[in-house]
Amino acid sequence: MRRLIPTIFGILALFSAVAAYGDNATLVDEAVMVNKELDPEAVVVRATYLSSGGFAVVGAEYIDAVGLSFDVGSNTSVSKATLRIPIDEVYPIGFNVPISVYAFADNGQIDLFDYSAGFSLPVSSQNVFGLTEIAVDVTSAVNSILQSSRYAGFRIVPDLIPEDIPDEAFPAFKGAKFDSSAATLEFTPGGVPVSGTDSAVFDGFRLYVPGISVPDLGVVDAEFNLTDLDSSIFSLVAADVDPIGGGSGNQLSGVELLDCQAFTPPSLPETAANPASFSSTSRLLNAPNVSFQGEDVDMVLALVQEGNPTTFRLVSLEPSPPTPPLNTVSSLGGAAVIEPSQDFIPLCHGWVLLGDSSRNRLVERNVITGEVGGTYFFNTQPDQLTLDDGNGTVYFSTHPQTERLYKLNLNTGIISYNRIVEGERQFSPVDLVLGEDGNLFTLLLDRSTGESPAPSGLWLGLLDSNADPVIPALPLQEPVRVAYDRVQKRVFLTTESNLATFDFFPDTNEVVFVDGTDIPVGSGCTDFAVSPDGSRLAYACPNGNNDEFTPLAIHDLDPVDYH
Q1: Which DSSP helix (H) or strand (E) runs through 145?
Q2: What CATH number does residue 379 fall under?
Q3: Which domain holds residue 24?
Q4: Which of 87, 172, 324, 470 is most buried, judging by how many CB atoms fall within 10 Å of its CB?
Q5: Distance (Å, rounded) from C-alpha 45 to C-alpha 300?
Q6: What phi and psi, each to the nearest 5 degrees, are found at residue 177?
Q7: 550 found inside a domain
Q8: What Rg, from alpha-carbon coordinates, does the chain have?
Q9: In a 3-state reduction of DSSP, which class is residue 68?
Q10: Is the pTM of this model over 0.85?
Q11: Are 373 and 284 contained in the same domain?
Q12: Could you read off the pLDDT of 77-136 as tens digits, one per residue?
């Protein structure tokens, strides 16, 4: 018997340990947190005082929330966890007793600051009218908590405000009274459950985001864990990278992107499913259409730290807008985050050439797939771009302006320049557009301070591919944009209010002003375009056009008889 008794006590001790830390966590503290700060504009970070009784109710002058703290022991993860709390009594408004359950990493003692601790969204929200207990799946919440604490905290809050309480209410509060001392946290130790989906999903602990477009890297499928519940910090735990060019297998760049017959468009149904993106400039990860608690949400996370681990902080989590019809741009996935840019050139099948103002380069990006093609580094900010597709050349100006015409050879990837000189004048290109025979109509700025027929220092030039003048530059007033219609052979100059039309004769390179066209057509104008057949003009003026008729933001004009 002497040998058996220690054995029996040992077995009982083992079973006791399993009961406390194997199947049921130990409830180590419970309290009611009373908040009397009811200003809706105030940011409440703590309760006013602690009480007892298991009340999660709202009165005219207070809000009570139940706080629970469980010791999960030395477990590092659970495969299942359920929070159960018996309900003693409900105080409904009609047939409605709405409550929410929040989770937080605790220290084993309910205090005033637990009133606002934890993740910003509840683990569960439900109407407990007619129920005798609540049972909530808290598996993901417990796994998040165990990343930083052994104590799992839960807060039960009535989803009511004092204004909801009728003046004649008896008792003078609404909500529910819980038997908080009988609350249990049942769990099964084990590995974290896997969602088993290849679409974007957040289960409260694991966040999986496929198809993230990352500049200079490619397309990334990434998995994150919510490792700091109270601070909404996510740690990157796995990443599968499809490198630049790997998505299509074509490895296309440069002049190859001008031949739309040489390669096929991307698969739209695949790319439309999850156009997630990361911007190295803003350091923001945009994850739209993430499945969370049975709904689609848009999540934005900010990069906090690179390294081991790489961490992000949740910035926002909002319901996703309704799915757009299939004939919209956004339904094609054309919403990639791009580099800060002053101008771009459309290429084929979603590809564009961007001027990256933040890192002094030209970049080929696909706005449908997020892929990155060629990257052409430079020593200053590219500004206005124009394409000579026949010769595979991109001409561009820079900011700050310089007295050089830059060009990118898409066949070789080489950037070169020529100085713009005419007689004793040296010009800086302000805007440029392709004309005939590879020549460029260019707005030119003369920085000299001497006498000039151009009072603002602006001229219209026609330059060849080496920046040599084809005809003498014409002095102008204050143009901001130049456009050319290759069908009707017309040159258009715009200011912030006026528009002027010129006829162009390619045989002689003569530019002739069209009488009656240099007139006001808008206010605060910013952009201008010519229809493909040259029969109509579109002039964008945020401050309105043609007040005589209606203050339009974009005016539709005849190219020679504007009104």
Answers
A1: helix 139-145
A2: 2.130.10.10
A3: 18-189
A4: 87
A5: 24
A6: -110, 120
A7: yes
A8: 33
A9: strand
A10: no
A11: no
A12: 999 999 999 999 999 998 999 999 999 999 999 999 999 999 988 999 999 999 999 999
CB–CB of 288/275 below 8 Å? yes
Do 327 and 465 fall into the same domain? no
Residue 239 near residue 328, CB atoms below 8 Å: no
Nearest Cα to Cα of residue 513 among 475, 486, 555, 468: 475
Q: Are strands 469-475 and 458-463 parallel, antiparallel or unpaired?
A: antiparallel
Residues 6+ apart with CB under 8 A from 104: 114, 117, 118, 119, 145, 153, 154, 155, 229, 230
Residues 62 and 141 in one domain: yes
163 by DSSP, 3-state: which?
helix
The number of folded domains in the chain is 3
**Residue 318 and residue 438: Cα distance in Å, rounded?**
50
Q: Residue type at 355?
A: G
Task: Return d(Cα 313, Cα 315) in angstroms, integer.
Answer: 6
C-alpha to C-alpha distances, 234 to 120, 229, 309, nearest whole angstrom: 14, 9, 10
Q: Please, what is the end-to-end C-alpha distance for the chain in angstroms?
A: 112
State both tokens at 399: 């900011």
Asked if 118 and 107 touch (Cβ cutoff 8 Å), the reply is no
Specify whether 145 is located in the same domain as 243: no
CA 305 to chain centre: 18
Q: Is 333 exposed, middle or buried (0-12, 13-18, 19+ CB in 10 A)?
A: buried
Residue 551: pLDDT band with limits 50, 70, 90:
low
355 within 8 A of 377, measured Cβ to Cβ: no
Residue 473 identity (one-letter amino acid): A
In a domain, 239, yes or no: yes
pLDDT number for residue 338? 62
Each residue's pLDDT tens digit, 357-385: 878 889 898 887 767 788 898 888 999 99
Same domain, 273 and 418: no
Task: Find tokens 């040296």 and name the residue.
Answer: 426
pLDDT at residue 40, as a whole number? 75
DSSP E strands in 229-380: the ranges are 233-243, 277-279, 284-292, 295-305, 311-319, 344-346, 351-356, 361-366, 372-377
Contact 298/317 with Cβ under 8 angstroms?
yes
